[in-house]
Amino acid sequence: KYRDETRAKSGLLRVREFTMKDSYSFDIDEAGLDKSFEAHRAAYVRIFERLGIPAMQVQASSGSMGGSGSIEFMSPSVVGEDEVIKCSNCDYAANVERAISTLPFAGESSTLSAPEKFDTPGVRTIVDLEHFDGGAAADHQIKTLVYVLDESLTLVLLRGDHELVEQKLIDATGAIRVRQAHVDEIKAALGASPGSLGAVGVKNLPIIADVALRGRENMTTGANTNDVHYRGVDLARDIDVETWASLRRVREGEACSVCNSPLEVLNAIEVGHIFKLGQKYTSALNATVLGPDGKPVVPLMGCYGIGVERAIAAIVECHNDDKGIVWPASVAPFLITVVALNAEDEVTMLAATSIYEALQAKGVTALFDDRKARPGVKLSDAELVGMPWRLTVGKRSLASGLMELTDRATNETTEVPVAEAIQTLIDFLRGS
Asked: What pTM was estimated for this model as a whole?
């Protein structure tokens, strides 16, 4: 089943348990928090290197955890459920909830001294307006979304061809309870249905706009009357934006905000996340410690986590081929599989059992396949479960005084003399 899923790349390998390796730090000042955070970051780099997981460090939203900053460790994978925005030239990398980019200015000066209404019968979407006679291209439209943020109806503005990342809206406003407004709430507040909404002249609702709209003129937006729009809208002149923030989803090919090179979008698996929580939780718990001057101090907190089973799944996703899993030696459940090809042959079983028991006695983790199954089935299963090495003990090779040692990653096979097999294997495996 796993082999079929690997070939199809149908989705991330799932595990039935979720165990979090958590660590917490408490410091009396920012310098201490920075030191603890850096120590954990460096430790996580070493951990993922030893696990064989190619983990990128990316800027991340702290989400509901809160705090002043966080780093996610992401492992690139075609089946990853997260998206990472990565620069093709410099070290910039961020998850989609945090990523920003530089856009060329797509605006033009308006020739109108005030917004001009025009009828748009049947126009309900950005695409409809693009194709409407006298309409506007998507990047010259203002998309108006209505959200309820902590019970406050709020207008959210983006360029017509851009997509809202809801977590960015949450991060920008600090809202705890966030939802899209219902149609009846929208009609009561603005007097129109979705598809004809806009922020021109709106004074009684907070307005938050994506920074890609800053400075834009000659824009088109809904007029808060069904089947009517405005053209010639100047953001600075006609809309009272209360907050400017990065709200949109960054797209592949846009320019890096650091070096202006093209950005790439990668699928990835989140394998770790570390946070600077500050005093969010210690303040809530009224936790204090005595500072150097003997006075109480609210400590600053850090939180650091690795999902153990998620890491195992990521290792498998990173290390596999069309035959099955290819475990790195550092994390393999067993270092070697001893396969007795002819389980009904007494000589074969005696040799295979002797090798297996000797390896166990020397502290080498070994898996013994002594099933009465066809040789092809055993070899195929050994490749499927993917231990780093396979020792094949067969009647024919034993007659020549040899056993076969196969590297699962390279499929290279070395002949090992039976008389020297135990010490040769131990020396070889311990040095691998």
From this structure: 0.80
